Amino acid sequence: MKNVVTKSKLQKTAIGKGLLRELAKPMAWITWWDFQEFIRQYNLWCYSNTECLDKLPTELEWEYAARGGYEAGSEFEKTLPFVANQIKQYAWTKPHSKNGATIIGRWQASYGFYDLFGNVQELTNSLFVAEIIQGKVGGLTTRGGSYQDQAKTLSSAFRREIELYKAKEDREGKISEITESLSPTTGIRLAIGTLFSPSPRFSEQIETEYKTYTKTFRGQTAAGKSIGETSSGGIWKNMVKRFNLELKKSELKAVAAIEKLTEKAKKRDTALSRELVIEKEENRKLTQALITQKYTFKKKTC
Which of 138, 228, 290, 291 has its CA at a distance of 20 to 30 angstroms from the CA of residue 27? Predict the structure, then answer.
């Protein structure tokens, strides 16, 4: 017998598809405190099943990931991790984002990350600081921009300050109510953290993995080439060894130069001594000649 598709079934299917589509979009319209509660509950659940820790990324962590991290190489310092005129292939922004946020992963990934730019801006774990030297912090900091931003304004360094609370004013302009801030353009992206070790066994595991890391991957990084360890005793030790060798060479060169100057000075002193002896002998002869001449003159006058 054929299945009869009724209007009611079609409505339920449409509602189901619509719900799935909405759930596929980034979460927004949530306060900072609700995000933190979600992260807290998620970590409690995660710890009961495995060993993990998730958190909001700091600004440095977010920008490092956005720029491509170690994989980016010389491209790391560029404004965007892709060609600027191709941003619409990677980010949901104006002028083509007309209907709010879109589903996650709709566009191409940049170094494995989807929707780093546009769609909804992402809260970080850092308070907004205009300049570090000022020492003054403000509200919350978001990164990446949202669907309300123009594509040409976005970059890996783009950041925005948003308020933690909002004040509602009455008709007389007086504050009547303080509410927690929330926005349709603001969401979160979790980062895996390693703030502490939950058990001795976990510490041993981290230590083992770190030793492997220092002997392999870290040695390929700029930092690793400066301080990393290698099987031959460490690049840093080799650098110190080379420095000591260069220092020894410099010392030997300095000693040789001093000896050369000393020898030159001795030769100069010897030459001066000879000149003085010759001059002294000439003066003696001249004096003797004068005495002889004077004696002869006296003898003639007598």
Answer: 138
Least confident among 36-40, 111-115, 228-232? 228-232
> Are 145 and 89 a contacting pair, CB within 8 Å?
no
Whole-number Cα distances in Å, 181 to 140, 162, 163, 186, 292: 10, 8, 6, 10, 120
pTM value is 0.59
**Tens digits of per-residue pLDDT, 272-289?**
888 887 888 887 878 777
Overall residue count recorded for the chain in this entry: 302
Domain 8-196 in CATH 3.90.1580.10? The answer is yes
Determine the pLDDT at residue 4: 38
DSSP secondary structure string, 56-106?
PPPHHHHHHHHTTGGGGGGGGGSSSSS-GGGGGGT-B-BTT--SS---TT-
Please tell me the predicted confidence (pLDDT) of residue 6. 41
What sections of the chain are H helices per DSSP? 7-23, 32-49, 59-66, 200-215, 222-227, 235-301
C-alpha torsion 174→176→180→183, nearest 10: -70
Nearby residues of 32 by Cβ (< 8 Å), 6 or more positions away: 123, 140, 164, 180, 181
On the question of a cis peptide bond just before residue 95, with omega within 30 degrees of 0, the verdict is yes
Distance of CA 56 to the CA centre of its chain: 18
* Residue 45 amino acid letter: W
